[in-house]
Amino acid sequence: MTSFAGRVGRMQGAVFQTLGEDASWTGVDQTVRVRHRSMDDVEGFGGGQVLVTSEVILVRRSEVPSPAAGNIVTLAESGLQYRVTGDPKVDRKGRWICVVAPV
Questions:
Q1: Strand runs labelled E in 1-103
Q2: Residue 14: in which H helix or E strand, if any?
Q3: Which residues make Cβ contacts (< 8 Å) with residue 100, sequence separation at least 6?
Q4: Chain centroid offset of residue 29 CA
């Protein structure tokens, strides 16, 4: 019998394989699989709220154990480079969410 965590891990592997792309990451010797996307967040501003869109790169903890602000990520196919701009956070699915900006 397979554990729930094992099933989730295999599902995440399939998602990254299908929707992700290869990239090089500062301080990591081998190529990693990442997902580059935009995320919306609602932030308070004065008495109101503002919708803020950020570019993020998602990467599995098994591939990049400790990402840090300042790391450079280079997407293999396009050659586009991004710098991690803040402290990476782990989401409920166990992936690093790294807010990035183009270099």
A1: 21-25, 32-45, 48-60, 72-75, 81-84, 89-90, 95-102
A2: helix 4-19
A3: 36, 55, 56, 57, 73, 82, 83, 84, 85
A4: 18
The terminus-to-terminus CA distance of the chain in angstroms comes to 46
pLDDT in tens, 29-82: 999 999 999 988 888 878 899 888 899 999 999 999 999 999 999 999 999 999
Q: Which two tokens stand for residue 14?
A: 């399939």
Locate 11 and state its tokens.
């599902």
Fold of the CATH domain 4-102:
Thrombin, subunit H (2.40.10)
State the pTM of this model. Answer: 0.84
Report domain extents, the chain: 4-102
